Every structure is written in structure tokens, then in C-alpha cells.
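S.,

As promised, the magnesium ion run. Input:
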Amino acid sequence: MSKSQKKSEVDSKIMEIKRQQTLVLIKPDGVQRGLIGDVIGRFEKAGLKLVGMKMISPSKEILEKHYTNDVAYLTALGEKAKAGMEKSGLSDSRTPIQIGQWIRNQLGRYLAISPVVAMVWQGTHAIGNVRQLVGSTNPISADVGSIRGDLTIDTIEMANLEGRSVRNLIHASSEPEEAKREIALWFTKSEIYDYENVMDKVLHDAEWDSPKKK
Ligand code: ATP
Ligand code: MG
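Predicted complex:
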């Protein structure tokens, strides 16, 4: 590979990382509790750029596509839930896929009870950075300082005992393929904005401190 080919490969990798996008939903508990502003403020303060936003009462169709009926997805969801239950001393005789299916049904009900705020956030490693700011799925073990750690107190244990979804305020895409699929599901291309702001220079312009620019 020539030097210039190598440079253009590195440049396109850098652009991909800097312009990564992720889908965030403020779930009905966040909307009802008046936490929309707090949540948006946390992502803004971290330096992410809001490139799409709307309030939406999700249809059954969009929810069924968001939390898919895919066997691998349901099995992974069920396995994660089962491991979490065992860790907290709860046993469940259902198979992972049965638990995954059950969680999916509960999620459909939970997300349909009031509007949700759907957003697309963009920036360096947006997917990982947003997940870090959101905190882990079970609010009781989410880090202090994270959205789920600071702004809610529900637990997966209570949710399981009461037979419902854990009310953890936010959904955020967990990896690039998921983000691409979810953004295309919730937003049309024209609802996503490509615009410049001061963060593009301060956070993302490698030349900002270059002597050539002075
Ligand atoms: P999200 O996908 O909503 O961002 P997450 O990636 O942290 O959350 P997932 O494992 O994808 O967690 O689960 C999706 C959602 O399902 C969770 O946010 C939560 O609302 C609900 N959920 C997950 N596991 C359980 C469980 N064991 N009991 C009840 N609800 C659960
Ligand atoms: Mg998830």
C-alpha cells in the first residue's frame, strides 16, 4: 500500500470515529418525571452534538422492530437477564429465549405508555461515550455520575418481582450495527442535520492548535 493510500485510509477512519452517531430514547419514565432537559444537558456538556430530535408516541410496529424478534438477540437478552438474576440470588426455570421474549413483551408495553423523546447524537466514539454517560442497565449498579446512577432508583430485581420492565430512563444503541439500524428505524434522512458548531473546532479539529493556523 502506498503512503498516500495509507494516509487516506487513516483519514477516513478518523472521520468515521469523529462523526459516529448513536440513537438515544428518553423512555416514558424520563419524560413523565421531567428529566428531558437534564438528560440532554449531560450529552451536550460532554461535547456530543445533537443532530436529530423528536417526540414520538411509538407505534407497535416500530417497537417490534426496535426490540427485534431475532432469536440471537432474544437469547442474548435472556442470558444477560438470567445471569443478573442468579447474581442477585433469584432463580428462573425459563430458558434464556423465553425470558428474552418475556422482556421484549414488557418493553413494548413500557415504551407505549407515553411519548418518548428520540434523538441522534454525534461525536467521537458517540456510541461508547453515550453508554458510559447513561450507565449500566440496572440502575442500582450504574456508576454514580451516570444518568441511570444519579437520576433513578429502580432495580432489575424489583422489576422481576413485579413482572415488568426495569424503568431505567434511557435507551442507547450499544454497537455500530445496532446504531445504524435504529437510526434508520426512528429517523428519515431529512430529519438528521449536518451542521457545524464550535465543538467541531475545539473537540474535533486536529489543526486547531497548529502554528500554521495562527
Ligand atoms: P437499552 O437497550 O434500553 O439501552 P441496555 O442495552 O442497557 O438498555 P438491554 O439488555 O438491551 O439493556 O435490555 C433492554 C431493556 O430491557 C433494558 O433497558 C431494560 O429496560 C429491559 N430489561 C433488560 N433486562 C431486564 C430484566 N432482567 N428485567 C426487566 N427488564 C429488563
Ligand atoms: Mg440494549
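The pocket of adenosine-5'-triphosphate (ligand 1) is lined by residues 77, 80-81, 84, 103, 107, 137, 156, 159-160, 165-166, 168, 171-172, 174 (CB under 6 Å). Strands lie at 21-26, 49-56, 116-122, 170-172.

- D.
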